[in-house]
Design brief:
By secondary structure, the chain is of the alpha/beta class. It has one domain (2-229): Spore Coat Polysaccharide Biosynthesis Protein SpsA, Chain A (Alpha-Beta Complex). It has helices at 32-41, 57-65, 83-92, 113-124, 169-177, 190-195, 215-229; strands at 2-8, 26-27, 30-31, 46-51, 73-78, 98-103, 129-135, 141-143, 149-152, 159-161, 165-168, 201-204. Strands 1, 4, 5, 6, 7, 10, 11 and 12 form an eight-stranded mixed β-sheet that branches. The protein has a two-stranded antiparallel sheet with strand order 2-3. Strands 8-9 form a two-stranded antiparallel sheet. The longest helix is centred in the last third of the chain and has 15 residues, at 215-229. It is globular and about 50 Å long. The N and C termini lie far apart (38 Å). The relative contact order is 0.18. It binds cytidine-5'-triphosphate (CTP) and magnesium ion (MG). Cytidine-5'-triphosphate binds at residues 8-15, 22-23, 50, 79-83, 86, 105-107, 211, 213.
Length: 230
């Protein structure tokens, strides 16, 4: 059985500001999506990308990524209005012989191959769902509607979650098809698996797997990329 990576890349990148779909914004001269897919192509057998839902985007993204996936099979589908919908559309296009699936944000272009391999290894060791995460370093407080502090949260039990997240295919499909899943605006896939009552295993995340969300993140990404190349 083969392994696959599903890459939601259909977001608008509102928080990054003007400049087109975030997955196609440039890092060191190449789209964020290319960086992400190049890394995943070294780790899995099949890469399924949910492209921006613009006319012609599926063909454009296919042409962009075909030279970048190495020996992996490339499938590109049109993404949806939400991240969850984009993942669901990509899942529907998975070849039948795929048993393990990574879901990885195009917006995390510098997540190392070693991180994807460690998530797959935890799946192979028996986990149904695996997420990389880091301890939270800021002090975290709960506030009320007036922005007045209610309490300081014990951060030692909190984790900041990244991608790639890994799942047995059947578990991920079941999670996305579960009653009520549509109505949720899940920001990750493990959140849907948690609703099934299945355990989600945490493995150590990577600082380099940070998500490019706001303009400062792109500055950081350029610096990390330059440091790697040096
Ligand atoms: N995503 C997607 N389809 C959507 C929305 C998001 O495939 N309808 C993808 C994004 O392309 C990104 C990942 O989900 O790779 C994480 O989403 P996020 O960081 O929120 O990206 P955007 O939605 O593009 O950014 P913003 O929320 O600032 O608009
Ligand atoms: Mg978003």
């Amino acid at each position: 059985m083969r392994t696959a990576a599903v890459v939601p890349a259909a977001g608008r990148g509102e928080r990054l500001g003007p400049g087109g779909p975030k997955a196609l914004r440039l890092l060191a001269g190449r789209p964020l999506l290319v960086h992400a897919v190049q890394t995943l192509g070294q780790v899995v057998d099949v890469v399924v990308v949910a492209a921006p839902p613009d006319p012609g985007a599926v063909d454009d993204v296919t042409a962009l990524l075909a030279p970048e996936v190495g020996t992996a099979q490339l499938v590109v589908v049109a993404g949806g209005a939400t991240r969850q919908e984009s993942v669901r559309r990509a899942l529907a296009a998975l070849p039948a012989d795929v048993a393990s699936v990574l879901v990885h944000d195009a917006a995390r272009p510098l997540a190392p191959a070693a991180l994807a391999r460690s998530v797959l290894a935890a799946l192979e060791a028996g986990a149904h769902a695996v997420i990389p995460a880091l301890p939270v370093t800021d002090t975290v407080k709960r506030v009320d509607a007036d922005e007045v502090v209610v309490e300081t949260v014990d951060r030692s039990v909190l984790r900041a979650v990244q991608t790639p997240q890994g799942f047995r295919r059947v578990v991920l499909e079941q999670a996305h098809a579960a009653p009520g899943a549509d109505a949720l605006e899940a920001t990750d896939d493990a959140g849907l698996v948690e609703r099934l009552g299945l355990p989600v295993q945490v493995v150590p995340g990577s600082e380099e797997a940070f998500k490019v969300t706001r303009p400062l993140d792109l500055v950081l990404a350029e610096a990390v990329h330059a440091a790697r190349a040096a």
